[in-house]
Amino acid sequence: MTTLDGFRPVTEVVADDRARVPMGRAGVHQNDRYAVSVNDEGSVLLVPLASIPRREMLVWENDELRASLFRGLAEAAEGKARRLDWVTADVDLDADVDEDE
Question: What is the C-alpha separation between 3 and 9, in angstroms, rounded?
């Protein structure tokens, strides 16, 4: 087996009749996601991915928003959180909440 810089041989595998290759010995688990790339020589590179909901992409695409969010989380962790009454002005905080809603 040839190796690329930074890679080490793990095992040799054989594709099954549906062209699937077992990857368990390489540390892959059920439902893991990977970006798959192939070079001209046929070498396959798998890059682990973490999928996030589209609605959360704004945080990762907007540096200012992300920095503000991280500052807020750090402040909350330090006990510096404060109540913002304008956020909950029209909400009855003492009302029972139905868990199915």
Answer: 7
pLDDT at 101 over 70: no
Domain that holds residue 66: 52-81
Amino acid at 17: D
- Does 77 map to a domain? yes
Please check whether residue 33 is in contact with residue 50, taking contact to mean a CB–CB distance below 8 angstroms.
yes
Residues facing 36 on adjacent strands: 46
The answer to whether the beta carbons of residues 23 and 13 sit under 8 Å apart is: yes
pTM for this model (two decimals):
0.50
- Count of domains observed in the chain: 1
Does residue 70 fall inside a structural domain? yes
Q: Which tens digit of pLDDT belongs to each residue from 31-69?
A: 999 999 999 988 888 899 988 899 999 998 999 999 999
Phi/psi for 45 (5° steps) reads: -115, 125
Count other Cβ atoms within 10 Å, centred on residue 60.
10
Give CA–CA dist 90/6, Å, rounded: 57
